[in-house]
Amino acid sequence: MIDRKNARLLTAAALIVFLSTLAVLLGRQFSLGRTLPVPPFRAFGPENAPVQIYEYTDFACPACRHAAGKVDEMLKVFGPGLRVSFKHYPLTGIHPWSLQAALYADCAGEQGRFKEYGDLLFAGQEKWALAKEMPPEFEQYARQLKLDWPKMQACAAAPETLRRVKLDMSEGDLRGVNATPTFFINGRRAVGAGQLLDQAMKFDNILRSAAKP
Amino acid sequence: MNKKPEPREIAGLLARLAVGGIFIYAGAVKALAPAEEFAYAIEGYKVVGPKLALLAAYVMPWLELYAGALLAAGVYTRFFAVFNGLLLAFFELLLAQAWIRKLPVTSCGCFGSSGGNSIQHELIQNAGLLLLTVAAYRYGWAYSADRAAGGADA
Description:
The complex is a heterodimer. Helices cover about 55% and strands about 10% of the residues of chain A. By secondary structure, chain A is α+β, with helices and mostly antiparallel strands. Chain A has 2 domains: about 1-30; about 40-210, Glutaredoxin, CATH 3.40.30.10. The longest helix of chain A has 26 residues, at about 5-30. Chain B is mostly helical. Chain B has one domain (about 5-145). In chain B, about 70% of the residues lie in helices and about 0% in strands. Chain B is built from 6 helices and no strands. The two termini of chain B are about 20 Å apart. The interface of A and B includes residues 12, 13, 16, 27 and 173 of A.
């Protein structure tokens, strides 16, 4: 039989466990954890820009292709006020080659052409996204950009490359990402290009004042 | 009315709060980050394989968080002082074997993957925390849940 003292202590323990669990789960919900840094080739804009956007994207997703154009426009318009960091979130359940595409894009990034390779992946999305076998486009784009294809293949097969992409995916899961593209604009979530522009409007003053020469 | 705590009890309380607080912080930082991140740090010690490292990465942050919070609150103070001490001793063993084997551990994983102290630094820091758990075990009753619930379990 539990005496009164132990009953009180067990109640206190249960309460502490419950409250600390709740605090962490709420912290996850509100993205209070540190955002993992992205490799330099996946970040665009000045490091200390007042508006920081993290984009969870999938090269095989049509909405991501549409959003990529908007992001490029925003980078052009708001230049110094904005930094966009790309995070991979390949929806492997519906896009069989998106993980592979993310790996190759990072490997193109290692050779200094992440953006260009990513643009080609988006542009040719319909050709490779639902291919039955390994799409030849991955190599074709690499050759088009004069990248070292054997080096890219070795890079894409390296555990470190996969690890980096998987970390992005786990981080996305933890932050409640369940659709692409999902953006976090100074911590505020937006899903899709429409919501991105709506959220960005809230930072309009900051963006414009930073963009002034 | 409770009598005023003695200086050693105040020291015990501070030790309890320090060790508990550090465990809460270490657990929360890791629980708020992807488990894979901590798992990669665990793999760096080359003691367990990827699957076990991932399992440990899911469990350990919560264990640290709960053990730290319960110690800080003074719930079963002695039990949780020993429990936290055992965890620290285990971490010391892991660090020591990595140091002896000269493993290239770039992030100890102690507080997530941000900031990486050298293994020697972490060994000394953990040894200091171990001493504090001894103080918490011996004199950590002041303002504890144990005392509030009806006497210390000394």
